[in-house]
Each structure stands twice: as C-alpha cells, then as structure tokens.
Amino acid sequence: MMVLRSVAVVVFSGLLVGNVAADNVSSQAEQDSPDYPTLKELWGDLTLGVGVAAVDYPHYPGSPQSDTLVAPLPYLEYEGDWLSIDRDGIQASLFKNDRIKLDISVSGSLPVNNDDDILREGMDDLELILEVGPELELKLGQWGRNTLELHLPLRTALELDPSNGIEPVGWVFDPRLHYEWRTQNTEFEIDLGAYTADQEYNQLLYGVSQQFATLERAKYQAKSGLVGYRLSSTIQYDVGAWSFLAYARYMDLGSAKNTASPLFVDDTYVMFGVGAIWRFKYADK
User: Is 208 within 8 Å of 219 (Cβ atoms)?
Assistant: First the structure.
C-alpha cells in the first residue's frame, strides 16, 4: 500500500500541481491573485525526498498466490490552501469544518502478470489500478492524542493499461472506522471496515468469459457486492530527516459475493510492507 500510494502521489501530484502552476501563469498575466501560489512560492512549499519500500501482497483478494515488491521511490510533500500531498496520498479539500471534511481519496492495487498466476493463466493481465473519488470524513470524537473518525470514500477504479491507456473499470465503496494516535515523532492508525465493489470491478477480478473458460476454469459472471471485511494498521516513526513506516492489512473474504468464482480460492487476504523515507529538501517555514 505504501508503494501504491507513492505511485499515486507521483502520477497525480504531477497533474494537479502542474495545473496549479499553469493556471497561475495565465492569471499572473492579468493580475496577481492571492488564491494561487507563484512558482517560487510553490517551490518553497515543497518538501522533497527519496524512499524505499518493500511490500508482500496477494495477487488479488481470493488469490492463493502472492508477490514481493521492493522499489525505490521519489517522495513529495506539499501543503496548500486546498491541496495537500504526503505519504497518505493526495487530499484535495473540497469542504472542511470542525466535524466534517470532504476530500479527494486515492487508493488502488498493484499489477499482476497472469502468466505467473496459476488460476488466471492465459487470461488478460491485471494492470495497475488507481481508485480516485470523494471521501467524506466525520469526526466522531477526539480526546488527548486520540481521534476517532468515520470515513466514507466512493472511488472510481481506473486501470492503467500500457496498450489502451487509462480505462474506467467500475466503482468501489470503502467505508471504515478510522482511529489515530499521534505524538511529536510517532503516528499510529487503525482502520476497520468493509470493501465493496460494483459488478464491473468484480468482473475484472473474478469473472471468466467464455474465451478463457477451460475444463478446470468454468465460465463465471461476477456479482456486485462485498469483497471483504478489512482491518489495517499503519505506524510511522520520525527521526530527524528520516521516517520509518510499517503497514499491514488483513481481509476476511468468507462472506464475499463471488466465492463461487473459479478464481476465488483463499478466504483470507494478508498484505504487509515496510518503508523508509529520507527528506533532503524541506518546505520554507
């Protein structure tokens, strides 16, 4: 997940920050606007770094196989009036008060080469999928260093296919309770919720069309509904210019809508990862 969020940050921050800069250049030709930063101000607000992450993840929920990925990544932090970018991804604040916040949420899943997957052998690969959409956050309580919130993200899933470009592949709804505990150097988070998807997205994961059906892999039409109940946790510890992170996610898939799919075997999903980030350029104070 840390790898995926970093990839999402690199892709979408380039688009969003680029749009801010482009809008700023055109507006400056007419008049100075306090709503948009100049290029110099934009650079001053950036924190830059490099990192490395390792993640072990199942090919998809229900797959009996997993992969391990180790990757170096660029790192970017930005805090603006409406846009922020950090290790959690991109948050474009649409509305905010003391109790309610409406953001843009980014998540997704890593690609799978089906030649390396026993159940999906001969089928189309699962490409990198980014999920983007609004997320409503409701603060349920705050005491001391603790915060409890209800997060309600609804995201469209976009498959980044090298051959066909970006293609929409359905919708996902990921409601969850979110708990945070923060100190000056440590941040600990726990999320408990359910992950659901529409028929198009579930068909991508669990559907088998007639052309890919075999004696061992029957044709299957996926249904919309529950993918699984999930519990995830993240911890970050900061020391000077360094941040060290660990992430884990567990999903109970026993009540999923598509357990009858020939591509569904394992009713548990376990993913974990670790990472380190070194910042070499800080935002101006």
Answer: yes
Token pair listed for 117 = 């997957």
130 close to 158: Cβ distance less than 8 angstroms: yes
pTM over 0.90: no
Q: Which residues are CB-contacts of 174 (< 8 A; sequence separation ≥ 6)?
A: 107, 151, 153, 155, 193, 194, 195, 196
**Strand pairing category for 225-239 and 242-252:** antiparallel
Which domains, and CATH codes, for the chain?
2-281 (2.40.230)
DSSP 115-158: GG-TTTTTSPPB-EEEEEEEEEEEEEEEETTEEEEEEEEEEEEE
How does strand 128-143 pair with strand 46-58? unpaired
3-state helix, strand, coil in the chain (%, to 5): 15, 55, 30
First to last CA, the chain: 30
| Cβ atoms of 206 and 264 closer than 8 Å | yes
> Residues 104, 92: contact at Cβ < 8 Å?
yes
- Residue position matching structure tokens 């799919």: 261
Q: Is the dihedral of CA 210, 109, 173, 84 positive or negative?
A: negative
pLDDT in tens, 116-164: 899 999 998 999 999 999 999 999 999 999 999 999 999 999 999 888 8
CA atoms of 274 and 243, how far apart (whole Å) = 11
C-beta neighbour count of 25 within 10 angstroms: 12
The pLDDT assigned to 273 comes to 96
- Report which of 51, 12, 8 is spatially closest to residue 274, judged by C-alpha positions: 51
Could you write out the DSSP letters of every residue in 28-78? HTT---TTS--HHHHHHTEEEEEEEEEEEEESSTT-S-EEEEEEEEEEEEE
β-pairing, 225-239 vs 128-143, is: unpaired
